[in-house]
Amino acid sequence: MAMKSQVEVPPASAKSTHNPSVVLLVLCAAAFMSSLDVFIVNVAFTDIGRDYHGSSLSELSWILNAYAIVFAALLVPLGRLADRYGRKAGFLIGLGLFTVSSAACAASPGLWWLVGFRVLQAAGAAALTPTSLGLLLNATAPERRARAVRIWATSGAVAAALGPVIGGLLVEAAWQWVFIVNVPVGVLAFIAALRRVPDSRDTAVSKTPDLLGSAVLALAIGALALGLVEGPDWGWGSGRTVAAFLVAAGAGLVFVRRMFRHPLPVIEPALLRVRAFAYSNLTALLFSVAFGAGLLSVILWMQDVWHYSSVKTGFAIAPGPLMVPLLAALSQRVAHRVPVGYLAAAGCALFAIGNILLLSSVGEHSHYASEILPGWLVGGAGVGLALPTILSAATADLPPARSATGSAIVNMSRQIGTVLGVSVLVALIGTPMSFARAHSAFQHGWWTIAGAGLLGAVAALGMTPRSRRA
Q: What is the mean pLDDT of each run of 10 residues along the chain (470 residues)?
């Protein structure tokens, strides 16, 4: 498939009236907020389950999975619709939907109402995330774009890491605050974007993106997650479990077929022929399986086995995220001397080693400094090396006209990986009633996480771009 050149159409007066620093702040704030919400809910699981009596871990997992599935499926097509009709309108619609649905999540009368509002929240996030990058590129001078994109990407990575910390502090008041906090931030960002962010669109985009393909992709991921989280209760050989996996396989095949036949598919096959881009997506998928499951596993261990409060859990998680900006800065300093694939591989391997340290040390009674902290610091260092490197390297060999689309696709891979990681962890943990069973279940979970991290390290070796733009 030929890759067309991109034609940006900004308003006539935009370049002379906007402040690039203000634009960067507003767009990074929105991206931070949407990324934060993927992970901030983890520490609220116990409190939400307590309010919605009788909810199992597999049911609660849909609070995370429903968001990530819809986010992944809509990220690319909503970005392309905004490219065609106007990115600022797409951004404002997405931000408005995200803000309103956040308030609705806080007011949910039951678990499945909450899951439904999380779906709407994810649709808003899927609209505002790619449009924020497109608007940022258009509003930034060419010589400053690389720095602006690094800040934008790092804001999302830091949000993912800090989510449990912020969530723990908010849940101390009430779990609803993990959603309410989005409302004032969203309103302020909406007003600032309306007044200060210049519009742009891409006149080369003249076709409607494959929205049906997005729905098929969501069906495939959702059916796979359903089979994984319900398999232990339904029975792995039961008709319902087998049917879920068959639906996932069938929908996956339909998605691949549409990918090659639709004029504007969710994933353009031509992009996957770019080696660095293909391996970056595979690495993002595998690393996110490990990261999504690893984050939830440590939180569940501290809350359900050691009986930590939400705020204590949040502070216990904090040292890992603090490693992220330190190692991200280090990776930027050495990226011109060390192939970025090696940096990402080192990060994935460190995350795997951190989980091996966890499984070899944790016991029935809380000894945080000796049992959780060492592995968590090593894992946090791995996140800091891997995640920003993957995001920045993925699009380095793509034509400039495909950078925004490529970024959306690699973020889609991250969300799919998160769904798979959470689903596999829930299937492995189940609802153990004794410490011995819980310890065995979590041991299996941490070995699986370590395996996904090591596979990510192998995949990362192939993602070093030929271009120096990474």
A: 45 56 87 78 86 87 93 90 87 95 95 96 91 83 79 74 81 91 92 88 77 94 95 93 97 96 91 92 96 93 91 88 82 81 95 95 91 94 90 81 80 93 92 81 95 97 71
Token output for 398 = 């793509």
Paired tokens of 149: 């994109």
The residues, any chain, with a CB within 8 Å of residue 13's CB and separated by 6 or more, are none
Residue type at 395 in one-letter notation: T
Tokens read off for 197: 């962010």
Question: Which CATH superfamily, name and number, covers 18-208?
Answer: MFS general substrate transporter like domains (1.20.1250.20)
3-state secondary structure of 202: strand
Cα–Cα dist 161/155, whole Å:
10
Considering the domain delimited by 274-470, tell me its CATH architecture: Up-down Bundle (1.20)
Asked if 66 contacts 115 with a C-beta cutoff of 8 angstroms, the reply is: yes
CB 293 within 8 A of CB 448: yes
Contacts of 116 (CB under 8 A, 6+ apart): none
